[in-house]
Amino acid sequence: MTSTKISRRTALSGAALGLLGAGGAPLLADSHGKTGKLDLEDPVVRAHVRARMSGSTKPATVHGLAQLHLYGYLHDGNVQPFFTLWNYTVTKWKPVSETQFQMQHYESGIYTKFGTEEVIDVWENPVTGEGREVWPFIGGPIPGLLGPDGMETGEGATVKPQSLGIHVIGDFVHVPSRSSFAFPNPLKPDEWPKESAGLMYYWDSFATRSARLADVLNEDLDNVPSVQHFQNLVSWHPWLGLGGHDGRTYGQAYGSKLPGGFEALPPFLQAAVRDQASEMLDVDNWTEFRDDFADYMRAYGKKS
What we know:
304 residues; alpha+beta; 11-stranded antiparallel β-sheet; two-stranded antiparallel sheet; 5 helices
């Protein structure tokens, strides 16, 4: 595994692009199971498979929801359940060529008690015993360009999500990826002793988007129903108050596209998004980049 020293903003973009497009390395068809009529040697086919599974090959706004269970691991014993984050996303897609699709990604996260729909404002840290004010997650807009071999980041990009291929197994198509990076932590330990995870911040994520082979083969579907699973291993977020404790959070997530959009969210989540992340309701007028780290630092009156 390799890490690259990069900025926080670039890292966020790389993480989002990796989850959406599984880009970086040439794609190979898996030999397992039937491949139907998918000619994965054709770059047009590969690009369309990716775009249709991740978003759409026609201009469209695609909504998604993932339920992310987060645990703490302190390099000793088993993981400890922390809380659940409901990751609601909105992504605008449009084709720019036969093999390229442009996206603009927006996302939010609502925290609940672990494995429940009970929204929390304060989290009782099981490691320190301290009650910590929950810091809502909101990020974007993050632009991207999806091509035959994943997200096209350019030669100068420091974050390049790595594709693990396109695989047809039985009646399903799977598109897995991985992404690993590190960047200097903007929260210095001497200035933020409770909040800082250390001088460097580390992020490792692994995602798989899956769809039925029959749907992928159906040329009438420009937006294919798909599900996604992902895991991540990430340095402590500052709001957790775990500065000085070795370890990271481990995330276990599963979700899917939401054809019904915002109205398809559970009622408790609609209310929470309106209250904590109202920008998600009007992404057409959301232009200023949002980063929960920078927002947190500004709110608490300190700068990197």
